[in-house]
């Protein structure tokens, strides 16, 4: 074909645009770090497709630890992970309190507020109880205002104590949740890839007759051709024994006849 001849459409349909292929290969990168220069291999751990399908395993483990989740943010597939805490519970509480995060500053301010409010609540409760008991004496029975004052003081004490304990409970619960999330984020996460489901080569007892000690071979589910090949080899290896077991030699009255019949069978 000369240079002036028009290109053959059949030949043109089978050609591959190499620059496009090269650019598509280069575009495949980790969706977390976008770094193609890493020596680590890319994996596809979830149902995502396209340019966001591949990640580095270390990048995925760091992201799972920082986000404190076990699911993909796009396809919501559950990852099988193993979390190992870096600190014990007591050590983590101490490290969380001395950290420079905003939650740690919130803990310090709440502790300061609690140290100020708690003595005030105790003093106010004592004064109110003392006043209520004073107005409840017998000399004030003829004064309705004194009785209502005593009841009002008791109601005020109850409301104040309930509000105080609710505030303490909410503060402790909030900081406990923040501490637990921080503790989980500091864990070392190890991603466990989905292991291939092992299947057993099923061989019937009729095929294995006379071979009770034949080992059972676990084979990966994806290699169906290897499974079929293994079944064929087992069937071929057991066929002669089955034939030999079916051979029955009847020895008659004449030893010569039995010998000749055996030789004819063989």
Automatic annotation (TrEMBL):
Keyword Lipid biosynthesis carried by entry: no
GO BP terms: protein ubiquitination
UniProt keywords, alphabetically: Membrane, Metal-binding, Transferase, Transmembrane, Transmembrane helix, Ubl conjugation pathway, Zinc, Zinc-finger
Residues of the RING-CH-type domain: 22-82
Record flagged with keyword Transferase: yes
Subcellular location: Membrane
GO molecular function: ubiquitin-protein transferase activity; zinc ion binding
GO cellular component: membrane
Transmembrane portions of the chain: 111-132, 152-172
Membrane topology qualifier: Multi-pass membrane protein
Domain of life, per lineage: Eukaryota
InterPro entries documented for this protein: Znf_RING-CH (IPR011016), Znf_RING/FYVE/PHD (IPR013083)
Pfam family, one: RINGv
PANTHER family reported in the protein's UniProt record: E3 UBIQUITIN-PROTEIN LIGASE MARCH 2/3 FAMILY MEMBER, FI20425P1
UniProt-recorded name of the protein: RING-CH-type domain-containing protein
Higher taxonomy: Eukaryota, Metazoa, Ecdysozoa, Arthropoda, Hexapoda
